[in-house]
Write a structure and sequence with these properties.
- The complex is a heterodimer.
- Chain A has strands spanning 3-5, 10-14, 19-21, 24-26, 31-38, 44-50, 56-58, 64-68, 73-78, 87-95, 103-105, 109-114.
- By secondary structure, chain A is mainly β.
- In chain A, the strands form three sheets. In chain A, strands 2, 5, 6, 10, 11 and 12 form a six-stranded mixed beta sheet that branches. A four-stranded antiparallel beta sheet of chain A has the order 3-9-8-7, with no helix packed on it.
- Chain A starts with a strand and ends with a strand.
- By secondary structure, chain B is mostly beta strands.
- Chain B has strands at residues 4-7, 10-13, 19-25, 31-37, 43-49, 56-57, 64-66, 76-78, 87-94, 106-107, 111-115.
- In chain B, strand 5 and strand 6 (56-57) form a beta hairpin.
- The chains are: A mainly beta, B mainly beta.
- The interface between A and B is medium-sized, with 24 and 29 residues.
Chain lengths: 115, 116
Amino acid sequence: AQSVAQPEDQVNVAEGNPLTVKCTYSVSGNPYLFWYVQYPNRGLQFLLKYITGDNLVKGSYGFEAEFNKSQTSFHLKKPSALVSDSALYFCAVRDMRGGADGLTFGKGTHLIIQP
Amino acid sequence: DGGITQSPKYLFRKEGQNVTLSCEQNLNHDAMYWYRQDPGQGLRLIYYSQIVNDFQKGDIAEGYSVSREKKESFPLTVTSAQKNPTAFYLCASSFWRGTGSTDTQYFGPGTRLTVL
């Protein structure tokens, strides 16, 4: 079985400060990891994914994420937050050996950027 | 959201009615998915389909049905057997290249279903 934990329901950051949204995962094999963002009453937008290779993955809108195998983590980061980054963020994992149903999502973290 | 359309955006259902949510994609994706989103629970998989005329149950399939007669379409029917259908429903699609596929799922804009 695979699972994703996003330990913070909400993260508050002042505009211009760096932000981190945490994600830890559990899979039997090697993981594929994804971050998505959701704005109110909208679908999910893909931000970035880790498949293999460099542990630091760069994605859309200036976001990046760091894969840490020993800590089974895939935290989302941005050097300087914008008010427009305020949204709901989801981490997801797929076991490399999984089938088409294999994407498991965390419960989401509300990111609030204060002006 | 580009390339995946869902309709209607808002849907109201009376107790005991079946309703069908539409999902269409023009991305030539092989696989399509239906998720349910409830506040604080993330996304839960209802059904998925890797190829035309084939589909599989996800984690919460009870009270739902699907069909995949065309590659670009994957409608979801919420039946009267679904005890608590009020939720936000999201359709997604991706290429599918077999076990170990790294393909990204892309999502439609969602349908909000409310039971009156």
